[in-house]
Write a structure and sequence with these properties.
The protein has 157 residues and is of the alpha+beta class. It is built from four helices and seven strands. It has a seven-stranded antiparallel β-sheet with strand order 2-1-5-6-7-4-3, sandwiched between helices. Helix 3 packs across helix 4.
């Protein structure tokens, strides 16, 4: 299994690159609200999870709150859209270096996962599903010229 990080795009939505201390503060605040409310949803109403990765450069634990689509009881799809920016999200680089991660769901359940980038027919099917169940992500594709990866998280045995 491997994670493909596409090249940076030349156009996309403006999304600020925050100083590390400020990004950490917002990440802690987001996780706190997620846990207090027992989950959350994206602006488009998609269920969210907290992805815990290991920093590609720092080796430190990193967190990202992301929308997801459940494929099965042990498989979930996540989209590396970063709202349609020209750059890829940091968590994608983290998973490219180490695809082993964990996720936390709104019910408090934590699951160890391994990530893989979808390709070919799997990717086409995923985008059809995303279009039906999470159309906000399809809109992000028109805002950037970067390929937006879709990843499958599978529960580790």
């Amino acid at each position: 299994m491997s994670i493909r990080v596409p090249p940076r795009g030349t156009r996309g939505v403006m999304f600020p690159k925050l100083p590390t201390w400020l990004a950490s503060f917002f990440s802690r605040l987001q996780r706190s609200q997620f846990r207090r409310k027992r989950g959350g949803k994206t602006g488009g109403g998609v269920q969210s999870l907290i992805l815990e990765t290991t920093g590609a450069r720092t080796g430190e634990t990193r967190y990202a709150m992301l929308g997801f689509l459940e494929e099965s009881a042990a498989s979930w799809l996540i989209i590396a859209s970063l709202a349609g920016t020209a750059r890829n999200p940091g968590w994608l680089h983290n998973l490219a270096k180490n695809p082993d991660a964990s996720v936390e769901f709104g019910d408090g359940r934590r699951v160890a996962v391994v990530a893989e980038t979808l390709h070919g027919p799997d990717l086409e099917e995923a985008w059809k599903r995303i279009g039906a169940d999470a159309p906000e992500y399809v809109k992000y594709r028109s805002k950037t010229d970067r390929d937006i990866p879709v990843l499958r998280l599978r529960q580790r045995a």
